[in-house]
Amino acid sequence: MSPARSALDRGERLRAPLLIALWILLGFEAAGGLVLFGASLVAGRRPGEALHVLLGAVLAAVYTVYQWRHWRRVSPFRARPDYVLGLIAALVTALTLVSGLVLGGVWWTARSSPRTMPAYPAVLSAVHNIGSMLLIAFVGAHLGAAVRRDPAARRPSSARRAPGSGG
Known about the structure:
Blueprint: H1 3-14, H2 17-43, H3 49-74, H4 81-111, H5 122-154
Helix pairs in contact: 2-3, 3-4, 4-5
Keywords: Membrane, Transmembrane, Transmembrane helix
Transmembrane segments: 20-44, 50-66, 87-110, 130-147
InterPro entries: Di-haem_cyt_TM (IPR016174)
């Protein structure tokens, strides 16, 4: 495939409705999670919790479809930084989504009982909160490694610089 065609394909993929929906949902979930975490610490309240749970369930479905399609396009696994970081990002994302769905189940159960605040398991909450931060870090690192890899792959081998050669 020519470099021009590869760049065109990438541009089309980056504008795909599924990827855009995924980024929007991730943004809302990240912002909402930070608000929930901060408000819980500061005021003992969790504003927007219902929206966070609902969008988290939608995000889990959208991410599953996206990841399935993405893996079908990029498989098989290769021993390269973008693949390793992508695998870590996918595992952390899955762990964060599963822990969020379980916490959402606790929230849903508590809504039908007379208690005002659900009693979330501390370890599960920690896994979800730390996983959320790791998700942002590793998804960003994966994207950075993939973007950095592509220009190097398009240059002729004689134009590539050796690591540490100052360029």
